[in-house]
Amino acid sequence: MLEAWGAELVPFSPLEDRRLPKGAGGIYIGGGFPEMFASQLAANTPMLASIRTAVDRGVPVYGECGGLMYLGRSLSDLEGKQHPMVGVIPAVSAMSDKHLVLGYREVESRIDNPLMGRGQRVRAHEFHWSTLEAPPTDEQSVYRVVDQENRPDGFHVGSVWASYVHIHLGSDPSLARRFVDTCSGLSDLSEP
User: Fold this and answer.
1) pTM of structure
2) Contact of 152 with 143, CB cutoff 8 Å
3) Please, which residues bridge with residue 125 across strands?
4) Which helix or strand (DSSP H or E) is residue 152 part of?
5) Is residue 183 annotated as part of the catalytic site, yes or no?
6) What CA–CA distance (Å, rounded) separates 7 from 29?
7) Which residues contact 146 (CB under 8 A, 6 or more apart)?
8) Disulfide check for 144: which of 29, 97, 150, 165 has CB 3.0–4.6 Å away?
9) Starting at the edge strand that comes first in sequence, how are the strands of the sheet with 82-84 ordered?
10) Which of 42, 48, 55, 65 does the annotation list as catalytic?
């Protein structure tokens, strides 16, 4: 869907690549299992620095679930060892073998972000075994989880938006277009 709106998708590996693709106008870091590769992710300091540099330049970054964990300050694995991550949002995540979060959600965007305008609602889902040591406050959050008493979800810091929820771009045709417009500079996400 991103390509249909004109994006050129250039994959990169936070494990193997030393820097982001040259000229990237936006970064999407999807879900996954960063806890399985936490030491390797932390050891790839050139990539961590490359993402921080992109954020400092104002490149839009959107992360979901594992992407949120990677963009946070640190990730503690199942053995309790803490690994430094990118550090561009105040998330500190820890793995739990007993705390499974699973289910469909209805989320409402609390702020304008690369996928949605303020007040827009979509269906989403969560699947994670991790917890946040300091969950987002309402002021920091990207979304309200409407069907869970408006629980705040995600973090917004500068040009970074990261959330535990996964949003399927096919659920609303405007999502992919908005992301492409944001990354190409056609959309102004600044709040009034």
Assistant:
1) 0.91
2) yes
3) 104, 166
4) strand 151-153
5) no
6) 15
7) 105, 106, 107, 108, 121
8) 150
9) 82-84, 74-76, 92-95, 130-132
10) 65
